[in-house]
């Protein structure tokens, strides 16, 4: 082994050893308790297995512009009717399309209007192909979404529903193809996401920092010895499950099935594939692209108990899109579509109905949009930032430091609904 190899191994050994020691001090009993609960949960889920009727889709692959294969699924209306529009669901970092498992039955069962769903796994996530590290950027994710739309939803009105890094993906698409949001995109949902300054503070600040030696070492080790890293992750599986419960959800009494779902999604993605996205999440900045969504029906929704992307990030997005509907879910964490599925379903249903009315009123062009080439690396397709962007950036920088609280939303759900012209 080379000297460099021994150096990396030594650092990695120290990291793994420290993690193991920390896990072993005072947590053995807790791990046994969690393991017993998970075994019981697995048995219960096996006994009640089954896919809700009308939600089984057609599996297919879409090739991205750099020939990375993206796993995709199309689900038609449960009643077999002609859909009024296509809803494209875009998941977040470390997850996959199962993120929307609670929304699938609701959307498939919608009538007046009925909708067609398109779900896919982001590159290096879920069933999609592992992509080269240099291609794991928000900019490329925007191009991937464009490839999915062109391949499986080339015509007709669209509603884009996104979560976390998926919201950043939609912003990148708006930056690259503003004409698409003028011609075809009738509605956009931005759930628990951010327009920038992700690395400013809090848990994301620690995780995404370029100066974090643990994350950097882990990424290097995952590239050099992926088997060792995955073995270590499996050994700490119960600890990771407890960590997932704490940081993905705001409700301490959340259904363990929901924790297990998120934990399973995270576990299905290679550690190295996830560390490939650290830099792009930390440098993501698309505040200037948000005004391009103003011509759409926009829903901005998040929980004020989110420890991953603080609530203030959603407020900043809504400030940049004056016509947006801003929904605040008290005490809810980073996965509102699972933690408060009923409320999220209802809000998405209203967004889709408003978007359908927009298409019927002729506010969207009926013809298929002409497309220009996407922006090259380092270029920005969006218009220059409007006056006030600097102030919004300052609000973003303080998002992680802002205290929770403020005025409570009406009936504990809605903070406000911005006036639409």
TrEMBL record:
SUPFAM superfamilies, from UniProt? alpha/beta-Hydrolases
Cite the residue spans of the region called Disordered: 354-421
Task: Tell me the keywords, alphabetical order.
Answer: Hydrolase, Membrane, Transmembrane, Transmembrane helix
Return the Low complexity bias intervals: 373-399
Q: Which domain of life is it from?
A: Bacteria
Question: What are the recorded GO MF terms, alphabetically?
Answer: hydrolase activity
- Start and end residues of each AB hydrolase-1 domain: 86-339
Listed transmembrane segments: 6-29
Where is the sequence biased in composition, kind Basic and acidic residues? 354-366
Q: What is this protein called?
A: Alpha/beta hydrolase
